[in-house]
Amino acid sequence: MTELGSEVIVPHGVLERFCSAALSSRGVREDVREHVVRSLTETSLRGVDSHGLELLPHYVRALDSGRINPVPAYRFDETSPSTARLDADHTFGHAAGAEAMSRAVDLARASGTGAVAVFNSTHFGAAAYFAFIAARANMIGMSFTHADSLMLSYGGSRPFFGTNPICFAAPIEGEDPFCLDMATTRVSWNKVRRHREAGLRLPPGWACDDRGEPTSEPASAAALLPIGDYKGFGLAMIVEILCSLLTGAPNGRDILRMYADPIDQKRYLGHFFIAIDVARFEDVAIFKRRLRALIDAVRSEPPKSGDTPVMVPGDPEKRKLSRRLLEGIPISRAIFEEYRAIGGAIGFAWSGIA
Asked: Among 56, 62, 202, 286, fewest CB within 10 Å belongs to which?
């Protein structure tokens, strides 16, 4: 483990062991714990720090307060040969989502497509984790979740929908799956929080104040701006329909806030997962080869700048993954101090860190 400026660089294996130990100390069941650890670690390895390991201290507080159930009793209701509902029993969204997507894959193997709605859940981290489950089974995977109100409504002065991400993944010949994982806002709220903690100004187009006016001051940020103005706002509403109206979950401003509301209260979040069996439409090997050819063609397009090649969605994350597997994962000093406090209480030793 090494320090770099205000960051601590830690090998991913050490972070996996710490995360597992922290969750185990709170009585998190093994199958649930494995998905949370894997999701957080893979997400940070891919460079999506806002939804990776830096969330662990918040999750520990949510466990200690009773918001998150460490030992859920899932209830799975198959409503047709290709559809189902899953009651997550207020456990980690990472584990409930993985269970739901695995069930969606099983339904798709039998019926060609599978769709599973999840309710009574909590924050599920990065949507890519679930879409990858389908893609690694030679299927197209899609995952969605709603979130508490953070996106400024188009033409409005306050937020109604959340960041409401959309994720699509598909298998490729010769490399990790293609993956588009995008919020319907320009950035996540965690990025605003990190800028606030570091005393940094926000880039243009990220956030607005409580009057709906754009702001570069993180302390004044009250809502996030949608991608593409009304288009991002419309996409967020589609996700809300899938994740609240099809699941019976609360929506819009009725969703309990992740940070601002009392952490001992349940959030009742909804998610939605789709798996599509590629083999029902095209030979899998042909599909994967053609997708590889499509991606290679895009990557070979002439760049505007010689320093920045044309990339497809997921390429920056693949580059980060290669580097971080070798070099370790950067953790902010503030988050690492929280790790040390958690680790000290359970006897976890951070070798090489004073």
From this structure: 286
